[in-house]
Amino acid sequence: MFQWYQGKTLAERRAMLAGRDPKARRRAEQRRHEKRKNSAMVTCNRAANLAIGRGDLERGPCEVCGTAEHIHGHHEDYSRPLHVRWLCRLHHLLLHGQLRPDVEVSP
């Protein structure tokens, strides 16, 4: 670790790093805001992944096209972490509006 970094508190280190790049502070604040905003999503995804690892929840094929490749879990309600819709990558992006329906993409 760098000498100038040793013995500093976390807040001091963040301030020192943010001072090196004027955009770094803004990016760090945005990351912290997104993490707080999406904490329910993160908790829900962790619970679902733990259930998959334990065998309590099993990934299924895409509900739309039936493929078993590139399956994503989609939560309609973050208060119900084990209620998951299984969608392929393409249909998950379409559901979130991150892809236009008229664009052709190979799965």
Quick synopsis:
This protein has 107 residues and is mainly alpha-helical. It is 47% helix and 7% strand.
Q: How is the secondary structure organized here?
A:
Blueprint: H1 10-20, H2 22-37, H3 39-54, E1 71-74, E2 85-88, H4 89-95
Antiparallel strand pairs: 1-2
Helix pairs in contact: 1-2
Helical fraction equals 40-55%
Strand content: 5-15%
Shape: elongated
Structure class: mainly alpha
- The strand line-up of the biggest sheet is 1-2
Order of helices and strands: HHHEEH
Low-confidence stretches: none
Number of DSSP helical runs = 4
Distance between the termini: 44 Å
What can be said about the biggest beta sheet? 2 strands, antiparallel
Total number of β-strand segments? Answer: 2
Radius of gyration: 20 Å
**What is the residue-mean pLDDT, rounded to a whole number?**
82
Description:
- The protein has 107 residues and is mainly alpha-helical.
- It has a domain at 58-107.
- It has helices at residues 10-20, 22-37, 39-54, 89-95; strands at 71-74, 85-88.
- Strands 1-2 form a two-stranded antiparallel sheet.
Which features does this protein show?
4 helices, two-stranded antiparallel sheet, 107 residues, mainly alpha
